[in-house]
Write a structure and sequence with these properties.
The protein is α+β, with helices and mostly antiparallel strands and 180 residues long. The protein is 62% helix and 14% strand. The chain has a four-stranded mixed sheet.
Length: 180
């Protein structure tokens, strides 16, 4: 969940993008920039470094993203760097994405299974989630062998856990209570 300040910056960018009919274009570009930051965290550290002059940081941003990012997004990056808020860039990108999802009736779901889901099961799960949520579903699949079997579904702030690992833990707890 984004802090209030990061949320407000994201909302400001979102509203400016909506006014210019560039919401999805900026969403895609912002996601690419966020991924690049995740892969090269030293870039973000450089933008936060007080020893580096603001003009040098802006030049680096311009050189890195000019022609690749919409001018609104590039100006946004320069603004948050100038205001010393660039450390919240990843939260801002996530908040921007959530505004987009809310406005377009989309929900992101993370499904964790012990083994990869096949296409038929994936399609079934998406259809069921669409019916339950009445929203378009973006399904992110994860594999975690430690859950042993079943599925863990993270739907916004809710989690549905039908994993074997959790059921065994519940059974162990019940057995402990019976024995004690």
């Amino acid at each position: 969940m984004a802090t209030i300040v990061n949320e407000r910056y994201a909302l400001s960018l979102y509203e400016a993008a909506r006014d210019e009919d560039k919401v999805s274009e900026i969403l895609d570009q912002f996601a690419v920039i966020a991924e690049a930051i995740r892969e090269a965290p030293d870039f973000l550290k450089m933008l936060q470094a007080p020893a580096i002059a603001l003009e040098d940081k802006k030049k680096v941003l311009h050189d890195a993203f000019s022609g690749k990012a919409d001018p609104y997004l590039l100006n946004f990056l320069m603004l948050i760097t100038e205001k010393r808020r660039v450390g919240g860039l990843l939260e801002m990108q996530e908040a921007y994405k959530q505004h987009y999802y809310e406005e377009h009736g989309i929900i992101e779901v993370i499904a964790t299974t012990a083994v990869p889901m096949d296409d038929a099961l994936t399609d079934q799960l998406i259809a069921k989630l669409r019916k339950i949520t009445s929203k378009e579903v973006i399904l992110r699949k994860k594999v975690d062998p430690s859950i042993l079997g079943g599925i863990v579904i993270k739907l916004g702030n809710d989690q549905i856990d039908t994993s074997v690992k959790t059921r065994l833990a519940e059974l162990t707890q019940k057995m402990t209570q019976i024995i004690a």
